[in-house]
Write a structure and sequence with these properties.
Elements (H helix, E strand, L loop, with lengths): L5 H15 L13 H9 L4 H11 L4 H6 L8 H11 L4 H9 L3 H4 L14 H22 L5 H9 L1
Helix pairs in contact: 1-2, 1-8
Length: about 160
């Protein structure tokens, strides 16, 4: 699972909010699909640039792009994927995002909402928000605050 961090959580929340407000969404378009919309938030690339990078390689959808990813190729699509991985994602995260299949995320949803359709905007928004919530909880759980007694002892000493 992704490394929880503020940049990634914020990008997920921005992605879901933009989709909610009607941002272009087309599952068959590499720049405006599930991963493409997140890529727009994690990079400075537009949907058209992302799609162009993908077509230049000619490897198919995000699943195939990720299977063939080579961090040293210098290809624009591989550089884009590298940027997304640097943000704390894994290849597996992106593959799950494209199909809305990560069980850890799906288990957080009410039972009747766990069978998501990967090419339906509302299901993508639900999945991304649940993922952001999960990462935020994981990040907050890493923060250890001193208890009140330790604080008072430090102030009084």
């Amino acid at each position: 699972m992704a490394q929880p961090n503020l940049t990634l959580i914020d990008a997920l929340r921005r992605t879901a909010a933009k989709l909610q407000k009607g941002a272009p969404y087309q599952w068959g378009h590499m720049g405006s699909c599930n991963c493409g919309n997140l890529a727009q938030e994690l990079t400075t690339l537009t949907k058209a640039e992302i799609h162009e990078h993908a077509l230049a390689v000619g490897r198919g959808d995000w699943q195939e792009q990720l299977n063939d990813y080579c961090p040293t190729s210098g290809l624009p699509m591989d550089l884009l994927i590298a940027d997304m991985l640097e943000a704390g994602l894994t290849s597996s995260d992106l593959q799950h995002l494209e199909r809305l299949t990560d069980r850890r995320i799906l288990e957080r949803l009410p039972r009747e909402k766990r069978y998501l359709r990967h090419n339906f905007r509302d299901d993508v928004i639900l999945y991304i928000n649940a993922w952001a919530d999960l990462l935020e909880e994981q990040l907050l759980n890493k923060i250890k605050l001193p208890n009140l007694e330790e604080i008072e002892e430090g102030v009084l000493a």
